[in-house]
Predict the structure of Aminotransferase-like plant mobile domain-containing protein.
Amino acid sequence: MTYQLGLRIDGDPGRTIEELCEQILGVVPGPEDRQSQTKWTVKLTWFHNTVCGELEQDATEERIMRYTRGYIMQLIGGILFPDVSDSRVHIRWLPHLEDLDACSRLSWSSVVMAWLYR
């Protein structure tokens, strides 16, 4: 279910994708930045322009964490798990970036290999 539909299989079932984006990134992509309401692939340029814009020298820790998550989403969509257009990333990867300590313990190499075989 997670892979095919982008649905979470754990955690709070009441959290929407919009709430997830707002909580983790501080902003929700608009309809013009998404492929559709149901697929939730977001343009890499949206992350670059909106989340990873100029990082202020006196940025708060929260701002730095959001910047980092946006940057990682660009790496995921552009290098690790590119789609056929090479210009979008599925929002399904975002929950894995909620806790960056736990994220670092995931086996990303096995997931990349499975993605390549797909």
